[in-house]
Amino acid sequence: MSIKNSIPNFVTCCSLISGCIACIMALRGNLPMATLWIVIAAVFDFGDGFAARSLHAYSPMGKELDSLSDMVSFGVAPGMIVYWLLEQACMTAPVLGEAAGYVPYMALVIPVFSGLRLAKFNIDERQTTSFIGMPVPAHALFWASIGYAFHSAVPVDSIGFIAGTIVAAILFSSLLVSEVPMFSLKVKSLAWKGNELRYILVAGAVVFVTLFGVLGIAGTVILYITLSFFNKRR
User: Fold this and answer.
1) DSSP-derived secondary structure letter, 29
2) What average pLDDT is seen over the chain?
3) 55-69, 132-146, 186-200 — which one is most confidently predicted on average?
4) Helix (H) or strand (E) holding 11
5) How many Å apart are CA 2 and CA 6, to the nearest integer?
6) Which ranges does the record mark as transmembrane (predicted)?
7) Distance CA 2, CA 160 (A)
8) All domains in the chain, ordered by first residue
9) Closest residue by Cα to residue 151 from 89, 95, 234
């Protein structure tokens, strides 16, 4: 394999390493750093596709490596963030009794459904220019944002937080394998026509992040889902 053809795979490996570091940071309870490394992984994930297109360096190995990397960076890493959050919340919820030791494992629904999503994506020929179901990077960024917001302390109502987090994990994970069409951020031109939803999403992201900081990323993902539903109904 030539050096040129190896560049996209190298970038993908950088994304994989970033995801591994995010997992380590999450299990140590350093959620701000876990969030940062997931964002870095997302940048590399965008970069490997850009490099492959620019260098015309596509390969079957690159496609498989990309999925394996995404599984770690955008499946396992956010799962570990939610695991840590639930574990901390259970410590302040004595009413759960012995069940408190098992509740955090509900977070594993995130990597499981992420794996199903990635496997489905690899064999679904309908997803060449858009997505069917939520892409795993968007899902991971949502949970990374939530983890960053609650890293210092879980809410006083820990039972409500636990229940809300588990319900959200199940609902958002279900979107990964849903049949809901979701638009891609890849653009062929900068014209307004045909890119309306993308420009609205970018504008919304700027507003949300300006107002709410890192938590605005979660708001942006919710806006992305909402716009996709709106686009489906048009």
Assistant:
1) T
2) 88
3) 132-146
4) helix 3-27
5) 6
6) 7-28, 34-55, 67-86, 102-119, 131-153, 159-178, 199-225
7) 55
8) 3-182 (1.20.120.1760), 183-233 (no CATH)
9) 89
